[in-house]
Amino acid sequence: MDIVRKTLDRISVERIKLELLGTAYGRSTTFIGRLDPRTLLLWYLFFAIVPWFIHNTTVLFGMFVFIVSMTALARVSYVILIILTLGLVGQVGWMFLFSMLFGGSLESLLPLLTLTLKLSVISLASIAVFSSMDPEKLSDGLSAFGVPEAFSFSLSYGYRILPTLLSEFHQILLSYRLRGRSPERPGVLYFRNIIYYLRILVLSFYPLMLNTAKRSRTTVEALEIRGFTYGMNHPEVKKLRLSYLKIRALDVYFIVFSIAYISWLFWFGESLPNLLY
């Protein structure tokens, strides 16, 4: 019980906000964070697309082991990993439940495990890559591949402002709790408390949207003052902004090792296609 209580004490809005800040602003000191964003994006595209076309469980499991090691090197937040695990378990659970309700058997669990391996590889690759890049590197990497400047900036801006919105939502929620009155009795199964908190959540949504609109207007004005529109329409400005991007020896070693491992994995998977089941 003490372990459960300590774990629940650590799960708070403030804790989640700090974890999101660490994720949104990247971890440039890790091995993955030192790589060029173009290298990371190409590496991610492979592991985001190719697993969908693979049905060899040996290859999928080998990819999963490789991605798990990359996720460990990226030092991904345990809160993000817990959310991912709960999502995967919940998805497979309800799909298996529906298959059993419509006349399925335990054999239907095997295809679901294959699907879970695919989703795990893709999800962990996403977390490892995007938690290792700050919004600027992400935007510059997309721009280097020819993605429109407005889209790449919007993506990085939304990536950066998410922790700020969560912090602001937390402050609005606390202000409603200070000015309001909680139920004196929780009711059956804490029914009154649940209704009270749901009402506060709905009321906090409107001030949050208003503050977000004000913040967006201030951001647009600041960008125009600094010449954002001019920079989008002039290639020399883009070339100057992306001049720091360089493919170094570390990027080459990483790509060569990834290609060598995947090549060996496909060869090994042809020899033992059903290593797991």
UniProtKB/TrEMBL annotation:
InterPro entries per UniProt: ABC/ECF_trnsptr_transmembrane
DNA-binding recorded as keyword: no
Membrane topology: Multi-pass membrane protein
Highest taxon of the lineage: Bacteria
UniProt keywords, alphabetically: Membrane, Transmembrane, Transmembrane helix
CDD domains per record: EcfT
Spans traversing the lipid bilayer: 41-66, 78-102, 108-130, 189-208, 249-267
Localization per record: Membrane
Protein name: Energy-coupling factor transporter transmembrane component T family protein
Protein source organism: Paenibacillus shunpengii
